[in-house]
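From the shared-data thread, chain only:
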Amino acid sequence: MHVRSMLLLTLLTLFVVPLAIVMAVDASATSGDATRNRQLAEEQRVPAVLTAKPPQVAAPGAETVAANVRWVATDGVTQTGTARVPLGTSEGDTTHIWLDVAGRPTDPPLTHTAIVVDEIVAGTMAFGGAFLVMAGAFGAEWLLTSRRRALAWERDWAAVEPTWSGRIEH
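Structure, as tokens:
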């Protein structure tokens, strides 16, 4: 019984874990692509001029900083606000910012790299989750099998012990 159940769990693990990874990566890719396509359809990139000197130091790994900018909206009205600009730009420089459907500065659309990173994270999380579920199944099988063996051993010992110890004569 134990060998069959362990073989079944092993085969199931070899099927379930990769399937979980593929499904998570596919769902993440689909979601990321849909978000990027929606952002590209709804948001627009416009030129903007920095109206003040932006910070010259950013968070570790960041390539942009928040800065005060001025841009011309689609209706021709000049707007001002805060937007993310490349690190190293100076007051008076022209850069490009992204605007949402309401004309407010927003983050740029997802990049292909960001989508791939999200896919890697989703795949890793799926692997971890599936691995934990399958490890739990193996652990439960081991506990049940050990319990059955212990009960069988106790039952067999109870039958043999009186004769073996001499408490009962043949």
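The CA atoms of residues 66 and 116 lie 26 Å apart.
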